[in-house]
Design goal:
Layout: H1 3-6, H2 10-17, E1 23-27, H3 33-46, E2 55-59, H4 62-76, E3 83-86, H5 87-98, E4 109-111, H6 113-126, H7 136-148, H8 153-159, H9 164-182, E5 185-187, H10 188-201, H11 203-212, E6 215-218, H12 226-236, E7 242-246, H13 261-264, H14 266-269, E8 274-278, H15 286-296, E9 317-324, H16 325-340, E10 355-359, H17 365-374, E11 379-381, H18 391-404, H19 409-415, H20 425-437, H21 442-447, H22 449-452, H23 457-476, H24 482-492, H25 495-502, H26 505-527, H27 533-544, E12 556-560, E13 569-574, H28 593-605, E14 608-622, E15 625-628, H29 633-637, E16 643-645, H30 651-655, H31 657-666, H32 674-691, E17 702-705, E18 709-717, E19 720-725, E20 728-733, E21 740-741
Parallel strand pairs: 1-7, 1-8, 2-3, 2-6, 4-5, 6-7, 9-14, 9-16, 10-12, 10-13, 11-12, 13-14
Antiparallel strand pairs: 14-15, 17-18, 17-21, 18-19, 19-20
Helix pairs in contact: 2-3, 3-4, 5-10, 6-7, 6-9, 8-9, 10-11, 10-12, 15-28, 16-17, 18-19, 18-23, 18-26, 24-32, 25-26
Bound molecules: adenosine-5'-triphosphate and magnesium ion.
């Protein structure tokens, strides 16, 4: 027997040797799915004499495809003509040969997201759609959804198109399709969709590929959407030699169109399918596996399967309920430090890269980054940027820098056209040259109306509003709390609005991060009620400047649970086990939402090989709002026999049943939407400040200021109001100062 077959266990080998007829490998996490599939390919070629040309293996990411190809080549040698590809590249190859049949030229272009955006922008311009109200990203998101569901513009018009927004989407979608065709171009969604259309339209072509691909394999089948499903099915229809590998318990991309039914109904789709369940897990200890199972068993829509392991039971899951998110982070940093230095194994200790912190949302990363850098523990944020490296955080910090110092040209250049103010690269270059010639700051150049007179009306207006805003905030910074200034900048600059209009997953995550920045500000304001902008910026600059560890360095990995799928680590931390955070409140908006969150929890737990920590915070400040929390429903589902620790650490609080019940009853039935609340607060705060411009304050009025307390109005002339507060007289600007009338 071949070496690689001998290494497989019996079940795995059974799957690898079953080469004819439909095969479903329903494999739990860490059971060797990918290994089995790889060996199956090698076996087909080496033992069954199958021509590599007749094999098609598809996966989702380029990385996964490359890894599989490498592994197969390691077994059977290089240079074989095998299609081990992502869905997109397989479809592209097919379309290159037959695009004429669909009315495209063979050399059709493939539009990437940037091209798509340009196209939609042009369409909006032609249709006179205000792209500030309806962004290209908004349209593209909707168009993509349509294509995933095979809804044509004409169908869209018939079935939707009732309200104003939908009509707009319909118009743009129709024009977009027309333009693509005219330009002989396809977008990424088209690659899949058109291949399926091609197969439907031309039987001969379909037959040709059905004939060629005698053996079809799909990894991560649980994450296929409708179109991918159709593609695979049409190809496999004739011979039925299809092998799909997946784990229904790990389907975590339904929110992006993945359809879990594809795997659950495989046996119906291919009658007589052989089903192999790989139930031995080679990754985790007994306790970790049992913990994962006790959680996932709560899902109703699943094939029952249970993993077992030869590995020892190992430690129980450690649970810590910290006081707040800072204590949570410092606990985790402490544990990592302790074990790294040898507290666990007693011997040489562990490598930092053996540790992973897996959180639900990107916004959680900041506290960990801070706690780890405080202890000098190197870390890397995978699949994302470090908190202070994120675009939106840098942008907003540049606004603040500019308020603090108008001469900061660097900051100005970064944000002058962010959000769009009609100032292109060329214009900016000219302005910079001019400023250099006149040896003044760029900001001063922008103030010169003779200079801006030559610009487009849009740019002129944009610059005027921008300079006025910065001047206003600069003049009032000493009278404003940093958090008010922050809210004011976010709203008045239009930055928040621009993100909200995009309505994409990315823009949502940017808003999350911006709201999380308020937690940073509040932290400092809580320590020092009189915090000035300058002081704040100084402290942040130090934090933001933590030197970036080089890529090769041994480092703790931070990432979201979503991006951790398929990976494994000896030591895993899952922080934020709280209702509303994980499961997130959005889970309750969709019927299957909670189950999908639970699968995500299962994915997280099963990443751990040796030890797993789960943590939560009694009190969490997220997006600038502090709340008591309730332990995650998933914590309650976890078999208590498998958990140790502390909830133990904070036992003193737990025994005070009354106190805990108090918290519980104070919680709303539905997890509270903290992010939405934070956004509302920001907008309300900015609106309240703006509203003071309309108030008719007169001498003698009693007013309240969040920073200076209660005071009496001395005079009010134009925009300037003078108020006597306990600690002296202040001049404030109406429309900027967060003043309200004193009650009673
Ligand atoms: P996931 O669900 O996380 O994607 P998977 O099912 O794809 O996991 P693999 O990544 O293929 O699992 O394998 C998990 C681990 O188990 C790997 O480290 C692999 O080397 C090991 N493994 C798989 N099969 C065996 C076996 N028969 N004997 C020993 N180790 C094995
Ligand atoms: Mg895998």
């Amino acid at each position: 027997m071949r070496d690689y077959l001998a290494k497989l266990n019996e079940k795995q080998r059974e799957a690898a040797l079953h080469t004819e007829g439909p095969l479903l490998i329903l494999a739990g996490a860490g059971s060797g799915k990918t290994s089995t599939m790889t060996c199956r390919i090698a076996y087909l070629i080496e033992e069954k004499g199958v021509n590599p040309w007749n094999i098609l293996a598809v996966t989702f990411t380029n990385k996964a495809a490359k890894e599989m190809r490498d592994r197969v080549e390691a077994l059977v040698g290089e240079g074989l003509n095998m299609w081990i590809l992502t869905f997109h590249s397989a479809c592209l190859r097919i379309l290159r040969r037959h695009a004429e049949l669909l009315g495209y030229g063979r050399d059709f272009a493939v539009y990437d997201p940037t091209d798509q955006k340009t196209l939609v922008k042009n369409i909006c311009r032609d249709l006179q759609i205000d792209t500030k109200k309806f962004t290209p990203a908004y349209f593209l998101g909707n168009i993509s959804k349509c294509k995933e569901n095979r809804v044509t513009p004409a169908q869209y018009e018939r079935e939707y198109g009732s309200d104003f927004r939908e009509q707009m989407v319909q118009k743009v979608y129709a024009a977009y399709e027309k333009q693509l065709k005219k330009n002989n171009a396809m977008d990424f969604d088209d690659l899949l969709l058109n291949t399926v259309r091609l197969f439907e339209a031309d039987e001969e072509v379909l037959l040709q590929y059905q004939h060629r691909f005698r053996y079809i394999m799909v990894d991560e089948y649980q994450d296929t959407n409708q179109i991918q499903y159709a593609f695979v099915h049409m190809l496999a229809q004739e011979r039925g030699n299809i092998c799909v590998v997946g784990d229904d318990d790990q389907c975590i991309y339904q929110w992006r169109g993945a359809d879990i039914r594809n795997i659950l109904e495989f046996e119906k789709d291919f009658p007589g399918a052989k089903v192999v369940k790989l139930e031995q897990n080679y990754r985790s200890t007994g306790n970790i596996l049992a913990a994962a199972h006790s959680v996932i068993a709560c899902n109703s829509a699943r094939k029952d399967k249970k993993l077992w392991t030869d590995a020892e039971e190992g430690s129980k899951v450690t649970y810590c309920r910290a006081m707040d998110e800072r204590e949570e982070a410092s606990y985790i940093a402490g544990e990592i430090g302790r074990i790294h230095d040898g507290a666990y194994s007693g011997d040489a200790g562990k490598r930092y890269s053996d540790f992973a912190v897996l959180y639900r949302t990107n916004a959680q990363s900041r506290t960990f980054e801070e706690a780890l850098s405080r202890r000098n523990v190197p870390y890397r944020v995978l699949g994302g940027l470090r908190y202070y490296d994120r675009k939106e955080i840098k942008d907003i910090m540049c606004y603040m820098r500019l308020v603090q110092n108008r001469a900061d040209d660097l900051a100005l250049v970064r944000i002058i056209n962010e959000p769009k103010r009609g100032i292109g690269g060329k214009t900016l270059e000219k302005l910079q040259t001019l400023a250099a010639v006149r040896s003044e700051s760029l900001f001063d150049t922008l103030l010169d109306q003779e200079v801006t007179a030559s610009l487009s009306a849009k740019a002129r207006e944009g610059i005027a509003a921008f300079t006025e805003m910065i001047t206003d905030f600069a003049g009032q910074q000493e009278n404003m709390r940093v958090s008010d200034l922050y809210d004011g900048l976010l709203v008045r600059s239009g930055y928040l609005k621009a993100l909200e209009d995009q309505r994409t997953v990315e823009s949502e995550s940017r808003i999350e991060n911006l709201m999380e920045f308020k937690s940073v500000i509040y932290d400092y304001e809580n320590e020092d009620a009189n915090l000035t902008l300058a002081e704040f910026m100084e402290r942040i600059a130090l934090l933001a400047d933590v030197d970036n560890h080089d890529a090769g360095e041994d480092a703790v990995v931070l990432m979201t649970l979503h991006s951790a799928k398929g990976l494994e680590f000896p030591f895993v931390f899952m922080p934020g086990m709280e209702d509303g955070l994980f499961p997130g409140w959005r889970a309750f908006d969709r019927p299957d939402g909670l189950e999908e969150e639970r699968r995500l929890c299962y994915v997280g737990i099963t990443r751990a090989k040796e030890r797993l920590w789960m943590t939560s915070a009694e009190c969490r400040t997220l997006y600038g709002r502090t709340d008591y929390t309730r332990e995650s429903q998933f914590m309650r589902e976890l078999d208590p026999k498998l958990v140790e620790g502390d909830g133990v650490m904070k036992k003193r609080d737990r025994t005070e049943g009354q106190f805990r019940d108090g918290i519980r009853s104070a919680r709303p039935a539905r997890p509270f939407d903290q992010l939405k609340y934070a956004r509302q607060m920001t907008e309300r705060n900015a609106a309240a400040m703006a509203k003071t411009a309309e108030e008719n304050f007169v001498a003698g009025d009693r007013v309240v200021h969040p920073k200076f307390g209660e005071g009496e109005v001395l005079s009010c002339e134009g925009k300037i109001i003078r108020v006597a507060f306990a600690d002296g007289e202040k001049k404030l600007a109406l429309g900027m100062a967060p003043l309200s009338r004193a009650e009673g």
